[in-house]
Sequence to fold (248 residues):
Amino acid sequence: MQLHPILSLPMFEAGDDLAEHIARGVLEAGLELSAGDLLVVAQKIVSKSEGRQVALAAVNPSERACSLATETGKDPRLIELILRESVEVLRCRPDLIIVEHRLGFVHANAGIDQSNIAGADHALLLPENPNESARRLRADLNALTGVEPFVLINDSCGRAWRNGITGMTLGCAGFAPLMSRVGEHDLFGRELMVTEVAVADELAAAASHLMGQGAEAVPVVLVRGAKLEPSDQDASTLIRERHLDLFR
Fold:
């Protein structure tokens, strides 16, 4: 399997054509899209192109946001945005809020970020519907290039019981993000009873390692040779149902 960073991409703004820029960037990297390729795309450029940047000056914090601001030390306007993007606040501590995002996954600060965006008084929300964003980008790339690559939108997240952040899948299109190994056998012939592999998250993390977290400016990685299984499933497959979640 090969991972190719796509380097020659602009600073994206609302309304920019992601597919056009990515297709051009792939060519400028000396590559050509082929069947079976996967494009891992950073959430940040998807959110920017979809106009998900918000000026904090335009946000009026609620009473609850102000209360949580006192508890966490965070800007109450930022907390108001977090609350609007969430269905439940699960944990709080100074400078951190863990929530269940409206899309179903558990995330710090509802995935809202202020890094790598222009304007110190702005925040960037996650895409409205990352799976739909991935499907749309896949279709647009097919229209431009005649090739319909698999698409994965990734973001950084922390994990319970582990230090550090890693890449995870917010949305995907064209392939099965979760692979069941149930019924197969290990080296000693023992049947696998519950093993499922989060293929999409493994690839999201691999690409995230190349993308970096600071000023690397690598928002797209082309993955070749991953041997993905075509599917209409999306990233919702990766979200554990609440009644099976032992940590809430």
About this structure: The chain has a mean pLDDT of 93. Residues 54-123 form a domain with the CofE-like fold fold (CATH 3.90.1660.10). DSSP finds six helices and twelve strands in the chain. The two ends are 37 Å apart (CA to CA).
